[in-house]
User: Fold this.
Amino acid sequence: MFSSLMMINNMQNTNVDPREIELYIHIPFCVKKCDYCDFLSGPYDEQIQKEYTMSLCQEIIWQSRRVFGRVTSVYIGGGTPSWLPVKLMEKIMDTLRAHFDLDPLAEVTIEANPGTVTGEAANIYRSIGINRISLGLQSAHDDELKLLGRIHTYDRFLRTYEILRQAGFENVNVDLMTGLPGQTPGKLIESIRRVSALRPEHISCYALIIEEGTPFYSRYRADDIRQKNGQPTMELPNEDQAYELMKRAQQEIISHGYEQYEISNYAKQGKVCRHNIGYWTRKTYVGMGIGAASLIAPECLVPKPEGEETGGMGLEYRISNTRYIYDYIDDASHLMAIDPQADAADVPIYDSVQRITRKGAMEEFMFLGLRQIRGVSREDFYQAFGKEIDSVYHNALEELKQEGLLEAREGRIYLTEQGLDLSNYALSKFLL
Ligand code: SF4
Assistant:
């Protein structure tokens, strides 16, 4: 099933180039909250949307003075970015283009929900440089959509999909979910068949997670515990059924001509999400907006004046912005007075700043890299850490190989199909 070597040949070399960076823009607005969702999002009025956009633009300008590099991908996620008035989205893209060095071939994705994109908006998105759309469908069955608390029907999704194609979008992702309460293999397969028949370039298929604090948590928490303990469940699929649904989805999506390139992601030839690949290969990315996370290599920070401590040694910073929208709007208004070379601890919109240790960076390299079907490159590990991967992970690699969970070939190390099924266990071996 895993044509790993084929994937290796099909994909670009992902040696991380320190001169390339990625941007993430968080738009936390949704028409209403879905019942399973714990993302940082919610319904806010237009006045807040305007104020937030102005703050976001201030952060974009300020970050462009702090972090440098050629921007090879932008991901506008949420929330429902397509719910933001299109004029405000234009303002964000104009600001970004004016202040960052955006590669003309950059992949620029916007997340959209069915029913929230008009033909006019789709045309404007194209004109402002957005070239990839990620559509949150989740299921092609209206009863499942209703259960999830989604605002759309399958017909509405079809209309939105048609609008996007008519506007000329040639790179569209559709999100689907497995493990829904009462979901049968037949219904899941039917969802995948309907979606594949539309020929989107990319499909993401995630298993439902019952998140604390959501209506689903109150409804299904007991069942979730039973599932995790391998006991019979009431409404959620039991452990074996959840696994079966995930495997059936994988086989069905691949049977329609998609290549699996990560645990939950599938693409037509040449249409992998470059932003995702950057994230899994630990490229520098700057997250902007509430709750947005960044991973910043020191060589991408504008240097401090000579003689001042740079905090060098090649260790990255992991940073998270404040999660509170009113704090963010307030803090962003003081941002321009902050020296872009200031210590991260003195930046008001930052909620947490962590210097990643060398050990932590090695662990992340393995955790993120091995989620990809093609795994990690020995050479990339050496380039990043100046050590052979075997000298750090000899025992873990041997143990997993003997268990049939990992293979090494042509300079790469990757999890086998069984290893990916047991990825939590396999990845835990790479903790140092
Ligand atoms: S549309 Fe997406 S982000 Fe918004 S509430 Fe639903 S799942 Fe969450």
Summary: The pocket of iron/sulfur cluster is lined by residues 30, 33-34, 37, 39, 41, 78-80, 113, 136 (CB under 6 Å). Confidence is low (pLDDT under 50) at residues 1-14, 307-313. The chain is about 40% helix and 20% strand.
